[in-house]
Amino acid sequence: MSTAEPAEAARLRVLLVEDNPDAADSLAVVLGMWGHEVRVAGDAGAALDVVARWVPAVVLSDIGLPGMDGYELAGALRSQPALRDATLIALSGYGRDEDKRRAADAGFDHHLVKPPDLAGLERLLAGLGEPRASRAG
Question: What total of structural domains would you count in the chain?
């Protein structure tokens, strides 16, 4: 499943925010197989509880969350100094340009359509593990 050898892959702290337990469990297993340290939250409130005691490098968040949606969560995360450099990745069932623009406006760095292309997600995360100076634009 992985194109990188485990010794070469950068270990990232990844917070996965997904209200569908099956989708969350499946993606968390894959992320763990890639060598990442993963925490899962079922809604925005639980995600904010996690980041109060564990600072992720990456937040993968569903947009359609109960209560506070993913857009509001992104704003709340971006307001926290400890998460200033975190990479926020939106997971959405919608992939129109308008949806991508709205995600960017909310503070997301990337927008992926559900279910995410695993090879593309793996490449994206591998790129985040590289030193900033060596990342492609």
Answer: 1
Rounded mean pLDDT for each run of 10 residues along the chain, 137 residues in total: 50 96 96 96 97 96 95 96 94 92 96 94 87 40
Q: Is residue 8 part of a domain?
A: no
The closest of 81, 55, 70, 78 to 17, measured between CA atoms, is: 70
Burial class (CB in 10 A: 0-12, 13-18, 19+), 19: middle
Burial zone of 34 (CB within 10 Å; 0-12 exposed, 13-18 middle, 19+ buried): buried
**Does residue 4 lie in a domain region?**
no
> Letter for the amino acid at 63?
I
Q: Please give the pLDDT value at position 9.
A: 57
User: Two tokens at 52?
Assistant: 């109060």
Which residues span the domain enclosing 35?
Answer: 13-19+29-94+108-130
74's tokens? 């992104």
> What CATH number is given to the structural domain containing 48?
3.40.50.2300
